[in-house]
């Protein structure tokens, strides 16, 4: 079957259910059309295939975390980032207070408390809030190969209810892990989560990690191969939070989800994948997105641990 036909088949097979529910702790996310579905794949040479509502935009949410982590690693170096954020799976939900007992470091950069800390490390030392925002805008856009824009309605909606994230920013501030103003950091982190993307963007961003840091559409080197490897490793172990083990055994693709209903996966040296469908399971992962990845992994033999 040619790829476009196959993706249409996947859409029909995987977009049939009405299980799961919309994220409602961010009021604006509860207002989206729950029946949207889109899937995209980008090859190592930058060819993108899509099916479904491929032009539908949604906010990047937690799928921004691996890219912000990549930019922090690029800007500060791996050692300096490891001093602030550990790399162990937490086994807890994305919004839990998961800190290492002795060091006080957040357990990993994929959960909120680790991502809030990582956000402070993007851009040069001493960057202002505006400079950090701009470093993120430029960096995320380089991964996508087009200028991404912030959905200010979603951003402001989340900021009005970001009580947990504010508490966590204050905790890492109190523990001496960050030195920045917690309110400023939550504002910047919430903005980081509100960039609008499509599944096409996700597939290109994903493949830019899978190639080892070069965007195959624009041919820009965005991060080094060492940074891309570190990010893929942390996605594999921590990207799906407290479902990471389940995901790695059944799907076997380094991936990251977001509460807007997107999931992207990056298979090293092979392909970038993006899926969007807003209804979520109890972990905050898209129900149909998980189903789609399971199917893609099986049909195309994408599991990282396949031995043949
Ligand atoms: N902006 C969201 C939050 O911080 C992102 C969470 C997610 O997508 N899992 O709560």
UniProtKB/TrEMBL annotation:
What are the record keywords, sorted?
Answer: Acetylation, Hydrolase
Residue positions annotated to bind substrate are 62, 112, 158, 165, 189, 241, 259
What start and end residues bound the annotated signal peptide?
none
Q: Which Enzyme Commission number(s) are on file for it?
A: 3.5.1.2
Hydrolase listed as a keyword: yes
* Subunit comment: Homotetramer.
Protein name as annotated: Glutaminase
State the organism of origin. Answer: Dietzia psychralcaliphila
Gene name on record? glsA
Residues included from the entire protein = 3 to 310 of 418
């Amino acid at each position: 079957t040619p790829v476009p036909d196959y993706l249409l088949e996947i859409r029909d097979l995987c977009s049939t259910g009405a299980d799961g529910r919309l994220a409602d702790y961010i009021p604006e996310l509860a207002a989206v059309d729950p029946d949207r579905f889109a899937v995209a794949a980008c090859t190592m040479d930058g060819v993108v295939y899509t099916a479904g509502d491929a032009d539908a935009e949604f906010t990047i949410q937690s799928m921004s975390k691996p890219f912000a982590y990549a930019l922090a690693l690029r800007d500060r170096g791996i050692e300096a980032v490891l001093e602030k954020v550990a790399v162990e799976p937490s086994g807890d939900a994305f919004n839990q207070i998961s800190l290492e007992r002795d060091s006080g470091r957040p357990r990993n950069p994929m959960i909120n408390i680790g991502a809030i800390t990582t956000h402070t490390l993007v851009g040069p030392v001493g960057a202002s809030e505006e400079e950090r925002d701009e470093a993120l805008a430029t960096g995320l856009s380089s991964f996508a190969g087009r200028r991404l824009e912030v959905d200010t309605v979603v951003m402001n909606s989340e900021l009005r209810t970001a009580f947990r994230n504010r508490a966590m920013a204050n905790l890492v501030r109190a523990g001496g892990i960050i030195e920045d103003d917690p309110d400023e950091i939550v504002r910047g982190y919430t903005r980081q989560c509100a960039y609008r993307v499509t599944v096409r963007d996700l597939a290109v961003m994903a493949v830019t990690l899978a190639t080892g840091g070069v965007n195959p559409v624009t041919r820009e080197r965005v991060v080094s191969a060492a940074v891309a490897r570190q990010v893929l490793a942390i996605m594999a172990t921590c990207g799906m939070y407290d479902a990471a083990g389940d995901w790695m055994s059944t799907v076997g693709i380094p991936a990251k989800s977001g509460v807007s209903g997107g999931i992207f996966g990056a298979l090293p040296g092979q392909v970038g994948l993006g899926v969007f469908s807003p209804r979520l399971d109890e972990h905050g992962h898209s129900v149909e997105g998980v189903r789609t990845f399971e199917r893609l992994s099986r049909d195309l033999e994408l599991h990282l641990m396949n031995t043949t």
